[in-house]
Amino acid sequence: MALLILVGLAVQGLLGIAAGILVSAVIGIVYGAVTKKKLFIKWSVVALVIDLVCIIAFYFRLVQVM
Fold this sequence. Notes:
66 residues; 3 helices; membrane; transmembrane helix; transmembrane
C-alpha cells in the first residue's frame, strides 16, 4: 500500500496520495475476497470509505472556492 501511495505522490503530486489509497483499498478488497480474510476486507473498506469521503469533500470545497 505504501509503495502505491509513494508512486502516486511522485507521479501526480498531492492528489496522488488519494489515488494511491483508492487503488490500494480496491486491491485490498479483491485480495481479501480471494483469500477469504474478513479482517483484511474490513480495513480495506474502511480505507476506501474514508478516501471517498475526503475526495468528495475536497471536490465540494474546490467548487465553493471557484
